[in-house]
Hints:
Blueprint: H1 2-39, H2 42-67, H3 75-93, H4 97-115, H5 125-144, H6 146-149, E1 155-156, E2 160-162, E3 165-167, H7 170-191, H8 195-205, H9 207-212, H10 217-243, E4 245-246, H11 253-266, H12 271-295, H13 306-324, H14 328-342
Antiparallel strand pairs: 1-4, 2-3
Helix pairs in contact: 2-7, 2-8, 2-10, 2-11, 2-12, 3-4, 3-5, 3-10, 4-10, 8-10, 11-12, 11-13, 12-13, 12-14
Amino acid sequence: MRIGALKDNYGADQALFDTAVQRLWLALGAVALLAFPFAASDYWLYLACLVGIHIVSTTGLNILTGYTGLVSLGQAAFMGVGAYVVALAETRLGTPFLLNLLAAGLVTAAVGMVVGVPSLRVKGLYLAIATIAASFILHFVFQNWTAVTGGTRGLSIPPAQLFGLELARPFALYWVIAPLACIMVLAAANLFRTRIGRAFIAIRDRDISAEVLGIPLLRYKLMSFGLSSFYAGVAGGLWAYFFRVVTPESFPFVYSIFFLAAVIVGGMGTILGGILGAVFMTLVPEALKLVVGLLSPWMPNAVAMLSPVRTIVFGALIIGFLILEPHGLAEIWRRIRRFFHLWPFKT
Length: 347
């Protein structure tokens, strides 16, 4: 009995210690986020803002693909919907910045739910093809509905304004993008502690069993598409304010491959995986640009090869992680934590 009590006390103490460590890491992360813009150059602030936008969109796709098991290859097109909503609201209505982002999310969520209707009848490869078709349809609309989208010329928007302050430079936008990304990541993490999140996971694991248990598949699948698209719409709105021009070429199909690669590389079905995948996949093109810059003196056509090489690298990363580490960077991080946690007691 005494040994059992000691084990119980040890387990409770260990849980308290782990909670304290997590809070410490969160506090250190918050301090780092607050201090980063004062120490970073414009280039790193640009990358930080882009990473924040990608984290929002990747987290949305992870809700749909990682947690609900519904494959989508239309995330870039949904971001385009959000970007155009923000551009139109800003240039024609002059509505406030945060209201425009909310409208972008809601309109994109409605579009995503329409695209998600076939998910009740098809899944896997067939659902992926359906989202690809939706992506091409939306791209066609972006390019040819000239009266609304501006066609191939696109739309230019003025800098965002919040409480009378103009958010034109990455330093100013960082203070909006970073908090919004944190809020949306925390919202997604808490979602899976609720009945809705558990229903998503049940559908992913076995949709027939979930239906037998009384989970209405169509309702929750459409809800998952709507939430994922809402995240994509907000990310697209932030993207529009960040680059201040929206064209059909801003959201190509390869951009959807980028987000799928981020989910797979980071780790499907984990919030941390979405963050790590977005950061990693955002930095990969920058590393390729650096390599191309170093090779340019010896390879005159190195710059022209950047785009196809980037696509090849994305595909290679997807295949490599699926074969070598299906659980992605999140699992690698967990292994590192376990190693250092047990290191003093290793033989």
